[in-house]
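Hi V.,

You were right to ask for the full record rather than a summary. Here it is.
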Amino acid sequence: MLQENEDYELITVDGLVDTWGIRYLKGHFTETVISIGAISFNEVKDHWSFNFEVIETPDPANNCDNEKLQEHVARTIEAIIYHNEEDIDLTPRDTIGEKYE
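Predicted structure:
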């Protein structure tokens, strides 16, 4: 399982207000910075989805269409949830709009 401050680090990124950037520290995506958007846990057991944006990368092949990067981002999300499950509110919401009303 990926480890914070070993495999990746959470960073602030200019222009990102409501989320952290994630910089990969080693492996195929070293120095690639991403931002994770919405995460949805579906009604089907063990199925979930997410979106992300590549903020910066030294390799132009590291983009949102890169399936290996998608898998790596999924493992990153799993690690963040696993290591912080007591601190994360996983309460379902009808819509995300409720947060901003």
